[in-house]
Specification:
The protein is an alpha/beta fold. It contains 8 helices and 6 strands.
Length: 166
């Protein structure tokens, strides 16, 4: 099975998308993360849900988790206000790497190796767009979809099922 066969449509956001809306999208759809596209529509990063959670937690609590016990529920319920007025790009880690990208012709094993190497629950599938010499347009990448770790596991486990004997 090839990456193009494993890829599914997936929610994307841009670096300029509203961070609170991105958080709502993740929560409502129970997504482990979102693919962030740059201004040209090319995969720029993966925004894990855990990164948005980290933005919600005050820095002093991250440094000293014991302080979480002294924050009352009324204030804890308002943590999401930290996302108000922020863009998705503001919530990306300073060390955010480009997302792992598989070529549409990559095998399931190549995708699994990539996913394992970068420890990402998502791998973008994109094809390179080549512009012939002398033609107008620009080379780039066309986003096709995403392979999730759960989808990949489902396919790999399905391949290990033994055929039923009559």
């Amino acid at each position: 099975m090839r990456a193009r066969d494993l890829a599914v449509e997936y929610e994307t956001v841009s670096v300029d998308s509203d961070a609170l809306e991105a958080a709502r999208l993740m929560a409502e759809r129970r997504l482990p993360g979102l693919v962030v596209l740059d201004e040209l529509g090319e995969p720029k990063a993966i925004l894990p849900a855990s990164q948005l959670v980290k933005v919600l937690v005050p820095p002093y609590v991250v440094e000293d988790p014991a302080l979480a016990a002294v924050v009352d529920e009324r204030h804890a319920d308002r943590l999401c206000e930290a996302l108000a007025g922020r863009r998705v790009g503001d919530c990306l880690s300073d060390r955010a790497e480009p997302p792992p990208i598989a070529d549409p012709d990559d095998t399931a094993l190549e995708v699994a190796a990539l996913m394992a190497r970068v420890r990402s629950p998502l791998v973008a599938v994109a094809e390179k767009i080549q512009v012939p010499p002398g033609a107008k347009g620009r080379a780039g990448t066309r986003f096709l979809g995403v392979i999730t770790a759960s989808r990949l596991l489902h396919e790999l486990l399905g391949a290990t099922r033994s055929p039923k004997t009559p």
